[in-house]
Fold:
Amino acid sequence: MMGFSLEPYSRVSLEENGLTEDPLLPTLEKVADNENRSDERMAWKAPIKYLISSKKNPWLLHLVILLTYTTIYLYMQIQLVKGTKKIQDLIYTPVRSAVEFEKRVFHITLNDTNAFNGPPSQELDDAWHVLLQNMNIRLSSNELKDLNKTSVMLADGSGDYMATIDAYHQLHCLQYIRQVIHKDHYTFHAADVSLIDHADHCIESLRQSIMCNPDLSILTYKWLPNIRGPWPDFETEHQCVNWDKIDAWSGQRAFNMFDPKFLVHPTLGPTFGKPTSGDA
Structure:
């Protein structure tokens, strides 16, 4: 009968094989630790499970669901505000408080006239005058500081400074180009730059403004019976800023730059005419 014998236990043989004195001890400790953690999780979940499943507390289930949806909603709103802030607050502008977005459909057709286009007329000029009448506005010294800019101080003793929302400058450029198109009708006063140079400046200003704030609305196309090529459908919905609110904000700060009491050069005197008693 064949027999066999076991080698006697020795610390050296265990250590030579990279084992501890009791190779099962770490494993047993790990199992015990996992069991303790499992018990802790079960102890934490048990009250919730009881509250949700208990027929005696059905309203608690509704409360848990309500709190869950509320948390998700608040999180989404916070993320939305963060995303909006990243876009809107890249620069400081005091007019931010007046910005309100709305949907608007453009109505544009060829050979169609409205208050702002068409052949020169007094009504047309009046409409553009009203559109641009709030172009020049006041800024306080604190607002100017927030802009990190300097400007011309008004000479009326208010301590305010001259400024313009750039959108009004863009409208001024459109008005100027329109007048250049009809230059036989309009009289252009002597200026530091030529007619063409001024028009080129306006074209470049409008180009940069359009590319800076591109309208991302999509134009589609259609076939017309008497035109060979596809025709754009301009009846498209746009995301717009409510212009009336911007204009109202500007109107509260506007001043008449042609009144000599406002703009006075440090050495050359009033920019326009002679001082008057009123503020238009």
About this structure: Helices lie at 11-16, 25-53, 58-88, 122-132, 141-147, 166-181, 195-212, 243-251. The longest strand covers residues 227-233. Strands lie at 101-105, 137-139, 161-163, 220-224, 227-233, 237-241, 264-265, 269-270.
